[in-house]
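Input record (one chain):
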Amino acid sequence: MPPRRAAAGAKAEAAKDVVLDAASNATEKVVKAEEDVKDAVVSGGEFRDPYPDMTIRRPKLPAYAQFPLAATLSFALASTGYSLLGEYTKGELASVSRSQDTWGEVGILAGWRLIELGLGWFGNMDSIDVAAMDLLSHGPSLYLLTAFYGLSPSTGMISLLVDITSAAVPFYLLRPLSAVHSRSSKLHNRELVGFGLQAYTTALSTGIYAVTIVLSLRLLLPRILVIYFSGLPTLEPAYSASYAALLPVALAFGAAASNFIYPPFATTDKVKDDEKIGEFDPATATLRETVEWNIAGYTAKTKVIVRRTATAAFVTAFNTYLACTMTVYGIASTGAATYAAVWVSAVLTSGLGLAYVGSE
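The corresponding structure, as predicted from the sequence alone:
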């Protein structure tokens, strides 16, 4: 055989061996990948990523930048939403409310909005919590404008939706849902926040709100409205208040109060300190131990519902008062405080009722 032909044959054989080796290696990798995928399926039908190092994850913002970004997004969404609302309704909301005349008033309202967002963010609330809290705090003033100042219900609802969305969307983008609102997470007493009990607690809070608002409109508010709400167009909604007419309003507030207060309370598990509280003996305790027990001698569940109810009452009182005195014409401080107290009493009574339902 000529040398050139022999060399060519040797090269062909070598190339053939390389191709066969590559094909063999590729086949082994495919088989290995299939085995990895099979191994990734664990009991219960759950799937575990066989290649965790290759999972693409979005970069996480530094902790110090998250709340400022959430606040900035909230103000931007609110500004855009109200601008669009003004164009769509041809300034209907502006016709029944007053704008802020000084930078001091603007600063007070902006500062309060930051406090609201801060309560939600640093209170470890998720977007659903913040949406419920925002409805409880911003709803009373918009109900006043709708019922007594001639604001159309559609404009009132859209305005409330702008407030809720501008607060909840930044939380949704920057913070995952809590275990209470995530159905895939394992949670203590998950059955207590099922559909049946949620419907029951919503009905309870709705009933409390309905009774509180109707009785206040019939017995308390007419005199307050006459004395402290100058320029009020009509008192007819107060005298003609009925449970049927107010049911949609009460249902919205009842659902928000129930969702904000009850689930985190009902799903809170016992902690070690709860046992110490049960072991407290006033006969042998020192003065310091007695004072500490009276101040902080509550179970983890009790602390949760007290904190949630107090937060809801605080934002309801403060936002309603500010909205009445700074965004509506002719409302005196006493009238604004009394009107806010009606809604605060509904929140507090709902908290007491929900505490009784979720108690062990």
